[in-house]
Design a protein that fits this description.
The chain is α/β, with parallel strands linked by helices. The chain contains 10 helices and 11 strands. The strands form 3 sheets. The chain has a 7-stranded parallel β-sheet with strand order 1-2-7-8-9-10-11. Strands 3-6 form a two-stranded parallel ribbon. A two-stranded antiparallel sheet has the order 4-5. The structure holds flavin mononucleotide (FMN). GO terms for molecular function: FMN binding; oxidoreductase activity, acting on the CH-CH group of donors, NAD or NADP as acceptor.
């Protein structure tokens, strides 16, 4: 099981009310959560996140511009504590700042293990800081972190190396979105870019790679409607990556019970990740086992600030059945 992303450093914030893993108070606050989840017998990884330019001065220490690969703003608006604002022009990180963020990922991994997590997932997807270096639409650098594919992968690989050295490769996964386009992070050569990244990851013995499936072209952003899942007939699919990577391969995005079974049977992935239907079904594993009907997710509550509504108020199958009897 993975948690949602957790911010690794004060400059990594870009959304209201997101949890962190950098102060002792935050580490201690995680402990009972981790204990309760692990008491259910699960392996529990924490996703480590730095938003980079997907932030705003209002979130940043001393009101500075947020950081990114290049001084290029994302399009659209960011939700700040003072309402929606245009994404600001970020500042291009210096090599010293890159080294500092690498070390923040390392420290966050250590903190995660101190909080009791079994491992961490490095968030290198969805247009956040590491993806802002991977993708050519965002990364306009001319130093050793920009230009060639090898240079654009350097920051991500430095983070993987630092985190793996700190906690052991078997406690490290990485999330990658070759086709997303979320937060304007796009690349004209997604296969070449991510195949290179995977060849480098093959040299490192990490727990898994976690790839996000291409989306239906008519859908917009995370959580928007997906067509019936049909990865084999999309313009793009993950098979090149699945075959390029020698270790454990997770696929995420739009899967149902049946598409997950089919994907595993066809060797499309080793594991399937479920997002929205897991959120709406706390007993998803049990429901899958007996092929029970699922609660429908409520899109309107996906990113709201409530601590319960949309997060822990979906009923289990027993609760649904008991409420029918009552
Ligand atoms: C409410 C919500 C929160 C999410 N938070 C994260 C996150 O923190 N990190 C991440 O990598 N993806 C996040 N996602 C994306 C999901 O992990 C997943 O990739 C997406 O929902 C597609 O999979 P699905 O079709 O099984 O839902 C989130 C999605 C939703 C709906």
């Amino acid at each position: 099981m993975l948690t949602e992303a957790t911010v690794i450093a004060p400059e990594g914030h870009g959304y209201p009310h997101t949890p962190g893993i950098y102060t002792q108070e935050q580490i201690d606050a995680w402990k009972p959560v981790v204990e309760a989840v692990k008491a259910k017998g699960t392996v529990f990884f924490l996703q480590l996140w730095h938003t980079g330019r997907a932030s705003h001065q209002d979130y940043q220490p001393n009101g500075k511009a947020p950081m990114s690969s290049s001084a290029l703003a994302a399009s659209g608006t960011v939700y700040t504590p003072k309402g929606a604002k245009e994404y600001p022009v970020p500042r291009a990180m210096t090599t010293e700042e890159i080294a500092r963020v690498v070390d923040e990922f390392r420290q966050a991994a250590r903190n995660s293990l101190d909080a009791g997590f079994d491992g961490v997932e490095i968030h290198s997807a969805n247009g956040y800081i590491l993806d802002q270096f991977l993708k050519e639409s965002v990364n306009k650098r001319t130093d050793q972190y920009g230009g060639s594919i090898a240079n654009r992968c350097r920051f991500t690989l430095e983070v993987v190396d630092a985190v793996a050295a700190e906690v052991g490769g078997d406690r490290v996964g990485i999330r990658i979105s070759p086709f997303g386009g979320f937060l304007d992070a796009d690349d004209s050569h997604p296969y070449a870019l991510h195949t290179y990244l995977l060849e480098e990851l093959n040299k490192r013995d990490i727990a898994y790679v976690h790839f996000i499936e291409p989306r239906d072209p008519s859908s917009k952003g995370v959580g928007s409607p997906l067509a019936v899942h049909d990865w084999q007939h999309k313009e793009h699919n993950l098979d090149v990556f699945r075959h390029a990577y020698k270790g454990t391969f997770i696929a995420a995005g739009g899967h149902t019970r049946n598409s997950g079974i089919e994907a595993l049977e066809k060797n499309h992935a080793d594991l399937i990740c479920y997002g929205r239907i897991y959120l709406a079904n706390p007993d998803l594993v049990h429901r899958f086992a007996i092929d029970a009907p699922l609660n429908k997710y409520d899109r309107d509550t996906f990113y709201i600030q409530d601590q319960v509504v949309g997060y822990t108020d979906y009923p289990s199958l027993d609760e649904v059945e008991n409420s029918k009897k009552a």
